[in-house]
Design goal:
There is one protein chain. The chain is α+β, with helices and mostly antiparallel strands. It has three domains: 61 residues; 100 residues; 115 residues, Glucose Permease (Domain IIA). It contains three helices and 14 strands. The strands form three sheets. Strands 3, 6, 7, 8, 9, 10, 11, 12, 13 and 14 form a ten-stranded antiparallel sheet that branches. A two-stranded antiparallel ribbon has the order 1-2. A two-stranded antiparallel ribbon has the order 4-5. A hairpin with a 2-residue loop joins strand 9 and strand 10.
Amino acid sequence: MRRKAEKYYAIWIFSEGGGKVKKIRISEKMAKFLKWVSISGAGIFFSCLVIFIWGLPKIKEHATLKKEKMFYQNVIKNSLTQIDEIYKYISELKLLEKKIRVTADIEGGSNVVPFGTGGTEEENIEDITSENKPLLASKLEREISILKTEIINTKRNYEELLPSVEEKRDYMRSVPLLWPVRGWVTSEFGFRFSPVLETHRFHQGIDIATRPGTPIIAPADGRVVFAGWEGTYGKTVLINHGYGIVTRYAHLSEIYVSEGQMLKRWEVIGTVGDTGITTGPHLHYEVIVNGVPVNPRDYLID
């Protein structure tokens, strides 16, 4: 049986300028295959083109959302970090306030805020969506509101503390903390045998012996209320320090201050002597509180 002759297609290729002509023979099967490949390729191409054109806005939207999400994550993280730092500063301020109150013996104040009480859960930050953005914003607003309240309270506490500290400062300046002169305490405060009167009597101060002419300083701020001769005390100075505190300096050889003069701590008021009734050069020093003599050692800082 004679085989049916296979059909061929001829493609003639002419070169420009009248050159050599090329002939390409393609079988019918190959032609059909190439036709199928061309149609399929064109279909795939147009399908991809349609998908690309339709999906491009989605891709851009996704990229925008991702970028926006990262932006919000960074903003929230930075905000929470700053909130924690502010909480830390507030805690330090409250701790300082507490130390000042304890040192100055001033009541009041508020509790110290623990470090790191601000913030939002990390997993919520990493999973920002359109649904939970309002929730995160609400949490941030709440944290900021709490911070504002803490700052206002801290400011108010310091404003209330300032007058008390100033009053304590003035009081401490008025307390006779310093030794008016350095030397040897030859007679303490209290009942003693008086070598001058040769009898037991209450000694209202302390006697500090040192060489004649040694400068005597004011142990605290105050105003001179007496400067002159005072009976058996000889040359004497009295200083009113306020708050019911008065100090007396007796048996001076020289007086450098006058009545009504305002003094600061460390100012020289006179020199050691033996005027009045004494057994030798020394300073008789008294501290009188609300009219009652008290032991000067209760105030002196060694």
